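To illustrate the input format used throughout this study, we show a single complete record. The first block contains the structure-token representation of the backbone; no residue identities are included at this stage. The design step must infer an amino acid for every position from geometry alone.
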């Protein structure tokens, strides 16, 4: 048992980091704490979901046309409530809402940030008791004042101020970055406090896991088919054959790969050329974390964080993990799929 004086809580950590920025007024600190508060409330419902009637479908579809699980709706409402109440952001883009949700703050010096969020990613796994997650991106607003507008949200990942995810698994963790490394905090449910458990997270030097839905194999570009065969070749010197691991919940798959070393792939296919994952609130935040952890994130051609979003819910092919693994995919796509993917 770690002595109490050696536990560093998320709040202590954020405040300490804020002290490194003399001009910081604490807005980002409060915003991150608002997110942590909502995560604790969602975590409580997820853990109780098996006991109360909150599993199953809400009976409505979200803007993606995906049937909304009751917990999706519940999580979305909790995060919107916490962020609106906290007053530090002027708009939210959520996977569950077609348009941005804008707030007018009565105090003009508030609301400097906008948030893009997937409140409950992987929710199709809820009733199978598989780990699910929340993913969030934080940008500075671009508009001067008043309620946030769409242009505040349509920013490339390189403009991110902070990004992170919460994984609701065997334990609940919040992992985030503000561009100065990646740190992981585990929730102590007995006191409702996130405690620093994974300081300075980085991809391991050696990595041998690949994560992809191989059920889409026949629709993959030739370069991806070649990469999968590469993963399966017998070459102990390069740790191959790699191990295939796929949960179908991006946060859980990425978190495992960050800890143990591996690449997560959701390629574009003949059926969905832009892939399935959304740029703003799934690819960009995970890409920021991956880069800060020494890795790389690409759409197979370009750095994910340099893509200029054109629409709120646009999708992107997504390859994220250790640099060497992502670069191998990029080379094979360039070699075998250049026409298909219009690679110059
Ligand atoms: P598939 C969950 O619905 C999600 O958006 C991600 O969390 C996950 O990685 C992906 O979809 C799984 O998609 O097509 O493999 O079931």
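Output of the design step:
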């Amino acid at each position: 048992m770690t002595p109490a004086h050696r536990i560093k809580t998320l709040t202590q950590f954020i405040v300490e980091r804020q002290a490194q920025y003399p001009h910081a007024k604490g807005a980002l600190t409060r915003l991150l704490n608002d997110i942590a508060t909502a995560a604790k409330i969602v975590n409580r419902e997820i853990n109780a979901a098996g006991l109360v009637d909150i599993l199953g479908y809400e009976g409505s579809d979200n803007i993606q046309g995906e049937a909304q699980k009751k917990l999706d709706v519940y999580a979305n409402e909790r995060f919107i409530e916490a962020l609106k109440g906290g007053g530090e952001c002027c708009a939210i883009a959520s996977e569950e809402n077609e348009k941005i949700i804008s707030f007018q703050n009565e105090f003009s010096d508030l609301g400097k940030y906008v948030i893009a969020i997937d409140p409950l990613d992987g929710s199709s796994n809820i009733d199978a008791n598989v780990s699910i997650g929340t993913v969030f991106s934080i940008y500075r607003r671009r508009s001067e004042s008043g309620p946030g507008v769409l242009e505040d949200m349509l920013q490339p990942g390189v403009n991110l101020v902070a990004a992170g995810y919460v994984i609701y698994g065997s334990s609940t963790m919040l992992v985030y970055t503000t561009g100065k490394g990646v740190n992981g905090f585990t929730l102590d449910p007995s006191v409702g406090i996130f405690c620093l458990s994974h300081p300075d997270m980085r991809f391991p030097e050696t990595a041998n896991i690949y994560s992809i839905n191989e059920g889409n194999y026949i629709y993959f570009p030739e370069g991806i088919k070649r990469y999968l065969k590469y993963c399966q070749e017998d070459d102990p010197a390069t740790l191959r054959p790699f191990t295939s691991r796929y949960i179908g919940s991006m946060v859980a798959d990425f978190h495992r790969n960050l800890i143990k070393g591996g690449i997560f792939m959701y390629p574009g296919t003949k059926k969905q050329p832009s892939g399935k994952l959304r740029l703003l609130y799934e690819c960009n935040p995970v890409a920021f974390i991956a880069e800060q952890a020494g890795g790389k994130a690409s759409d197979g051609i370009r750095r994910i964080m340099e893509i200029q979003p054109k629409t709120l819910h646009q999708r992107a092919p997504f390859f994220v993990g250790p640099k060497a693994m992502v670069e191998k995919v990029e080379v094979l796509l360039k070699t075998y799929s250049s026409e298909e993917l219009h690679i110059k």
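Structural context for interpreting the output: Residues 209-336 form a domain with the D-Maltodextrin-Binding Protein; domain 2 fold (CATH 3.40.190.80). The pocket of 6-O-phosphono-alpha-D-fructofuranose is lined by residues 121-122, 124, 213, 248-250, 253, 276 (CB under 6 Å).
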